[in-house]
Write a structure and sequence with these properties.
With about 450 residues, the protein is of the alpha+beta class. The protein has four domains: about 5-130, N Utilization Substance Protein A, Chain:P, domain 4 (2-Layer Sandwich), CATH 3.30.1480; about 135-200, OB fold (Dihydrolipoamide Acetyltransferase, E2P); about 200-275, K homology (KH) domain (GMP Synthetase, Chain A, domain 3, 2-Layer Sandwich); about 275-455, K homology (KH) domain (GMP Synthetase, Chain A, domain 3). It is built from 20 helices and 16 strands. It has helices spanning about 5-15, 20-40, 80-85, 105-130, 200-210, 215, 245-250, 255-265, 280-285, 315-320, 325-330, 340-345, 350-355, 365-370, 380-385, 385-390, 400-415, 425-435, 440-445, 450-455, and strands spanning about 45-50, 55-65, 75, 95-100, 140-145, 150-155, 160-165, 180-190, 190-200, 220-230, 235-240, 270-275, 295-300, 305-310, 335-340, 435. Strands 7-6-5-8-9 form a five-stranded antiparallel sheet. Strands 1, 2, 3 and 4 form a four-stranded mixed sheet that branches. Helix 9 runs antiparallel to helix 11 (about 325-330). The radius of gyration is 36 Å and the shape is elongated.
Length: about 450
């Protein structure tokens, strides 16, 4: 194998791996220096010149002319030097040209292994840089492998990982399935770049709307806030920077065409699009869509709101497992307590009976989950439960129960008492302290038709 064949072989590998010729030239320089070091012990006195375009490879080794050679890598005998350059004298510097093919088959095989390793490192580096610059972008790939902890998605020559925590819970994945996902993070690890994608991230929903609604991409409509229970319900607030364009209408599209495209991509996730308002009462009323509260009692200082619903709309207002009201609270930043009209107008509500543990934001998901194993789901259940039964649940300790009790006490203390029917003066005084928004006024501010259209 001559020099040109050698260069062509390496060049073909670079082309196959889609590596720049300049990089392959740098790798070959380092490669042959390592071969020289293996054969002679040092490569400090060597220069390697590679020209991939012309298929040229030249290796020069600077040596000192001596009488007797002790180191073949740094010395040459005067007799051998004078055969090439007759004027050479003892102590002169002689430039020896090394034939790359003289390293032998064994070293060439080692060189190819070294080259393959370098190419793999370059591929990893390129993949990392490529996807690192695309964080926040939506990509499309094929499901390659479905594991217990993650889904592996293949895009071109790269493999992306979607942890189960980043999936939509009600989705089922299979090999060969085409998926859209958001590039969430990219990290370089010893095994290569770890590219994490997500379908449950809020930004994924924002990007889907951007793809379907040109006004968002153009900056005319802005998405301000997104809250989600992935696969079940999402709420987003939007604002238009052009008075002539209705933000909600643009996001919904004609006959719901735009929002339905997003809903289909998210496996039927219901989406409420809400116009931004600087008035808390209007924003909260819209956030509780599709239900419409009859009255709102708002304490701006405590960031607390009491929403009174018609008895028949109570279930719709709070949602399944308090999902709708929790999302509304997260969207608006207010703690929202829902009560039925009959309870509000009659006997004051017993807080213990009405408050579910997952409604108390200070209780962690783990606390609520462990207590639910003992069939404790409300404050009333907790107060009635036997401490020994609770401690029998694996993971529940006395310190945890003490923390739970204190957080429940603080939460209940933050909820204002409802006005009682038999003390009219007291009710009037409380209504004056809180801001009451009658139902008619709410509909006037939010727009009845609008609220019905945005829920899908």
């Amino acid at each position: 194998m001559d020099k040109q064949e050698l260069i062509q072989g390496f060049s073909d590998i670079a082309k196959e791996k889609n590596i720049d010729r300049t990089e392959i030239g740098t790798i070959l320089e380092e490669l042959f220096k390592s071969l020289i070091e293996r054969q002679y012990g040092s490569a400090e006195n060597c220069d390697v010149i590679v020209n991939i375009e012309r298929g040229e490879l030249e290796i020069y080794q600077n040596k000192e002319v001596v009488e007797e050679v002790e180191n073949l890598g740094t010395e040459i005998s005067m007799k051998d030097a004078q055969k090439i350059e007759p004027d050479m004298q003892l102590g002169d510097s002689f430039v020896d040209v090394i034939d790359p093919t003289s390293f032998g088959r064994r070293l060439i095989v080692a060189a190819k292994q070294y080259l393959s390793q370098q190419i793999r490192d370059i591929e990893k580096k390129h993949t990392f840089e490529n996807y690192f610059n695309r964080v926040g972008e939506v990509v499309i790939g094929d499901v390659r492998q479905v594991n217990r902890d993650s889904i592996h998605i293949h895009i071109e020559q790269s493999e992306l990982r979607m942890p189960r925590t980043e999936t939509i819970p009600n989705e089922r994945y299979r090999r060969g399935q085409t998926l859209r996902a958001l590039i969430k993070s990219v990290e370089m690890r010893a095994s290569g770049p770890d590219i994490v994608v997500s379908r449950s991230d809020n930004q994924f929903l924002a990007k889907l709307f951007e793809m379907e609604v040109p006004e968002i991409e153009d900056g005319i409509i802005e998405i301000l806030t997104i809250v989600r229970a992935p696969g079940q319900r999402a709420k987003i607030t939007v604002r238009s920077h052009d008075r002539r364009i209705d933000a909600v209408g643009a996001c919904v599209g004609m006959r719901g065409s735009r929002i339905q495209a997003v809903v289909r991509e998210l496996n039927g996730e219901k989406i409420d699009v809400i116009n931004k308002s600087d008035q808390p009462e209007v924003l909260i009323s819209r956030a509780l869509s599709p239900a419409k509260p009859l009255n709102l009692y708002i304490d701006d200082d405590a960031k607390h709101c009491m929403a009174v619903f018609d008895d028949e709309e109570m279930d719709s207002g709070v949602g399944r497992n308090y999902q709708n009201i929790n999302l509304a609270a997260e969207l608006t930043g207010y703690k929202i307590e829902a009560v039925k009209q009959s309870e509000y107008e009659g006997t004051p509500v017993n807080k213990d009976q009405e408050v579910f543990l997952d409604q108390i934001n200070t209780l962690t998901k783990r606390m609520v989950s462990l207590l639910s194993e003992a069939d404790v789901n409300t404050v009333a259940d907790y107060n009635a439960a036997n401490e020994e039964d609770l401690l029998a649940v694996k993971g529940v300790g006395a310190k945890m129960l003490e923390t739970v009790s204190e957080r429940i006490r603080q939460y209940l203390a933050s909820i204002p008492e409802l006005p009682k029917e038999e003390t009219n003066d007291e009710a009037v005084e409380m209504a004056n302290e809180a801001e009451e928004i009658p139902a008619k006024e709410i509909e006037g501010k939010t727009g009845k038709v609008e609220l019905e259209e945005v829920s899908t």
